[in-house]
Each structure stands twice: as structure tokens, then as C-alpha cells.
Amino acid sequence: MSEMDSSDSPGTTVTFATTHSSWSRRDFIKGVIASGVSVSGMSYFGAGCTTPLPAQTGGVERLLSLTVNGQVRRVDVLPGETLAMTLRYKLGLTGTKLGCDRGECGACTVLIDDVNYYSCSTLTHRVRDREITTVEGLESPDGTLHPVQQAFVDELGPQCGFCTSGQVMSAVALLRANPNPTRQEAREAMAGNLCRCGAYNHYLNGVMRAGSEA
Ligand code: FES
Ligand code: FES
């Protein structure tokens, strides 16, 4: 998996910055420190969603235009707000899950310019000029599931389902970069997405099925 601003995942070594981005863990931490805002979810929720605040704080423009699932969305974003918080609690896109909220589990995975990233470890202000895709943006207008979603259903990937949207996003990113991965390549690409239900082989089967049907 390619993670932007993510930390190590069990069983694999992942870098905080991807080869696709110059962003790094240091950039993320510097951004948060500069903002003077805690990365705690509750602090966002409390300050960002329930308390009216002026449009600008400390010279940082807060009213952003974000391109999400092909639509431009105007949203008021705190200086140190993570993309996961913006998507879930400002834009109502709750398909993106928050598990650890610290770059370890992959539940919050979204695509940024077709690359999978941990949205809990990505500052929203850093993606204002990027194309963001969440799991809500994958299916066709008529409701037809994305091939990866359908393959995961066919292979019985989702158990409790909490990790599923993150697994889907990482699989989509993989197949866009490498439409015919080997099983080992797929296993490595999905290593940043944990599944407490242990459905790893089901998800892998789904990735391979979607790749072969693409
Ligand atoms: S990696 Fe983002 S919620 Fe766990
Ligand atoms: S399906 Fe339950 S955590 Fe993965």
C-alpha cells in the first residue's frame, strides 16, 4: 500500500511518504504544530463541528474547495484537521472509517489522485488541489458496484465490514497501477490494511478476481 503520512503497519514496513508525494510524517507533524490544534478526533469534532468560528484563523484560509468524488465541495476546515475528519464529519462521507486514527490500520484509506492514503494522517489543507475519491465515489450512477466491490462480495471478503472500505480503496489503487498483479504483489499492496476478522485471503481472492476480470 502507498500511504501518505502514515506510520508503520504490523507485518510490513511502510513509509510515511509515498513515492508519489513529497509529503512526509515530518510535514504532517509540522503542520499540526504550526496550527496549534490537536489531532485528536474529539477536539476536531468539538471545535470544528459544534462551535461557530470565523472563516480564518492565524492567516490560514479555512474555507476550502475540495474535489471529492468528482464534485467540488466547499467546506470550512480547521488548520490542523485531518482529511478523515473532514470527509466524515463535515461532508457526511461516512464510508471512510476511523479505526486507530493514527496511521496503523488502514480503515480510513481513500484515493488521492488515484493513490491510496491514510486519510487519518493527511491534513485536509494539503489536498485542496487534489482529486479525492472515497468509497462512495466508486459505484456507477445506476448503482452498479465497482468491480472490486463486486469481487469482494463474491469472495465473501467483508465479515464485520469495518475494514472493507479501506480494503476496497487499496485494491482499486493497486489495480489502477497494476491491473494484473501476482498474488504476492497484491498481498504486499494490501499489507497496510488490517482486518480484525482475519479475512485476508478472502480479500486477496477478491483482488485477484477483480484483476482477472478487468
Ligand atoms: S490508519 Fe487511519 S484510522 Fe487507522
Ligand atoms: S471484515 Fe471485520 S475487520 Fe475486516
Verbal overview:
This protein is an alpha+beta fold and about 210 residues long. It folds into two domains: about 25-135, Beta-grasp domain (Ubiquitin-like (UB roll)); about 145-214, DNA polymerase, domain 1 (Orthogonal Bundle), CATH 1.10.150. Helices cover about 35% and strands about 15% of the residues. It is built from seven helices and seven strands, in the order H-H-E-E-E-E-H-E-E-E-H-H-H-H. The strands form two sheets. The chain has a five-stranded mixed sheet with strand order 4-3-7-5-6, sandwiched between helices. Strands 1-2 form a two-stranded antiparallel sheet. Strand 1 and strand 2 (about 60) form a beta hairpin. It is globular and about 50 Å long. The model is unreliable at about 1-20 and about 35-55 (pLDDT under 50). The protein binds FE2/S2 (inorganic) cluster (FES) (2 copies). One FE2/S2 (inorganic) cluster (FES) binds near residues 98, 99 and 120.
